[in-house]
Each structure stands twice: as structure tokens, then as C-alpha cells.
């Protein structure tokens, strides 16, 4: 009788613990700023909203089970990397030479551990490799062939580069090359710098994490690396704040945007939304850049500022309700 009673009590407490984990947990994701309204037909919108929802469900399942924020971030981003609608993983854009160069980073706010990879060509899910860099090496950032050699030691899935080929991205490159030939490279660069996926999460223990993954910029040259894999620029997390950026990477690098937001929140004690709005919608545009970000605080407050026509984004609040959005005001 006692054993049966104890089993019932443990079961009740187990359910209560899972409920408490879900109540506190928050997950916010993005699939890139720079949305162009004329390209958003009903079918495309439906597919993108479905993918965002799936990523939120996969990531939030980790939090609901009491797993750390890092697991939620990794799970959500991996879903978006596998979907060709986003400029990361399967949907990565092409560089000037017709190749895909993938970047990713992840950071644990509780410990300030971080890992990143840049210019990899065969890694199916760069976010998984970034996490392995963080957890299984003494380094923070690995690049190119060396990063892929490390991937082999970690049993990270490598694929034939043809895996990343999509008609849409290939045509975007052809259009950019035509603009190059017509002497309009600056215009092509401005139109091609958007596209990234990312996630920030708060777990039941109050720990924050952030991650970002991207295919970079269409028609990019000379081994260019943007802000996404650079800790402090496109990705950052500490005990009080987590950020993943999306936009024109050069400006996020120059402002160290993700770190700047978190310092305003953690050290200057600015309201989270005010800090995010200032960096994304004042500081970066002042220099000529644009884009967006997702920002999450240790109290569960979050912000999704952007200054483009739209930003693919979604969140699961502490109530557990899922929201997805593309355009302003949603």
C-alpha cells in the first residue's frame, strides 16, 4: 500500500514539475529579416508559417521536458536548417562561385561557453557542429576544411554539396550575376544580405541560450564571413539576456550588436525592449545597415525588433501558446 501511495505521489510531483518547467520556459525563433512582400504569395506564407510552427514545437518540447535551453535552441534551429525556405542549411544561398558557405554559432548564457563554425560546405546541420565545437573542443570558432575535419571526429552528418542546391537560390545567384555584369553590384549586395535563422530560449532553471545559422550573402566573394558565427556580433547570451540577429552582417559586426544589446540590459539595466529597439532600429540604421533580432531576458520578457518589410519569427510564451508572424503588427 505504501509503495503504491509513493508511486502516485511521485507521479503527481513529476507532472507538477513538468508543468512548472513549461510555465517558466520561453522560446523565440526567427527565420530571417528582409522579407519582400511581393514574394509572399499565400502558398509560400503557409509553408513558412508551418515550418516556424514545427521549429517552435520541436524546441519547446525540449523545454517542456525540463531540458536545458541549449537543447531547445539546437532543436529549433535544426528544423529550420532542414527547410529550404530559409537561408540556412538546405536553403542556403550561393556565393559568387556557385558554392554554399554555411556559418553557425551557439552560446550558453549561464557559463558563457560558445562555439561557432564558418564557411563549411558539407555539414548538413551547422548548428550541431557549432555545439560540438563548444562542448568537445577547447576552441570557440572553427573555419572551412578544418571545421569539417573536426565534424568527422564528432560523427556530425556530412553531405554531398549537391544536397544544398535549390532552384530558387540558384536563380537568385544568376540574377545577382547579371546585376554584376551590368555594373550594379552594390544593388545586388543590398538585396542579397538578408537571411538567417536563429533561436533564443529560457529554461526551467532560468538559464538562457542563443543560436544562429546562415548561408550568408548571395553572390558573396573572397571567403566573406558575416556576423552570425561571431560571438557578440550576431549571437550572444549571458545570465540576463540572449540575442540572435538577422540582417546586414557587416553592420552587426561593426556595432557588436548582440553583445551591445545584452550589455544595455545586464549592465546598464535598460528595459529589454528599449535596448533592443535602440541597437536594431537606431544604431545600426544610423550606419546604413538594417535587419532585425530576437532578444530574450531572464524574466521571460522578449522583443523581436526589425526595420525591414517583415521578419519571419515566432515564439512560445510562458503560457505555452504558439505564435508565428511575418509582417509588422502580427
Please explain how this structure is put together.
This protein has helices at residues 2-24, 42-64, 69-81, 126-136, 144-153, 167-181, 185-192, 249-255, 257-266, 272-287; strands at residues 26-33, 102-108, 113-120, 141-143, 197-202, 208-214, 235-237, 241-247, 291-297, 302-303, 311-316, 322-325. A hairpin with a 5-residue loop joins strand 11 (311-316) and strand 12. The longest helix has 23 residues, at 2-24. The chain is globular and about 50 Å long. It is α+β, with helices and mostly antiparallel strands and 330 residues long. It has an eight-stranded mixed beta sheet with strand order 4-3-2-6-5-1-11-12. Strands 7-8-9-10 form a four-stranded antiparallel beta sheet. It contains ten helices and twelve strands.
Number of contiguous helices:
10
Uncertain parts: 1-21
Count of strand segments: 12
* Outline: globular
N- to C-terminal distance: 54 Å
Question: Which helices and strands appear, and what pairs or packs with what?
Answer:
Elements (H helix, E strand, L loop, with lengths): L1 H23 L1 E8 L8 H23 L4 H13 L20 E7 L4 E8 L5 H11 L4 E3 H10 L13 H15 L3 H8 L4 E6 L5 E7 L20 E3 L3 E7 L1 H7 L1 H10 L5 H16 L3 E7 L4 E2 L7 E6 L5 E4 L5
Parallel strand pairs: 3-4
Antiparallel strand pairs: 1-5, 1-11, 2-3, 2-6, 5-6, 7-8, 8-9, 9-10, 11-12
Helix pairs in contact: 2-3, 3-4, 6-7, 9-10
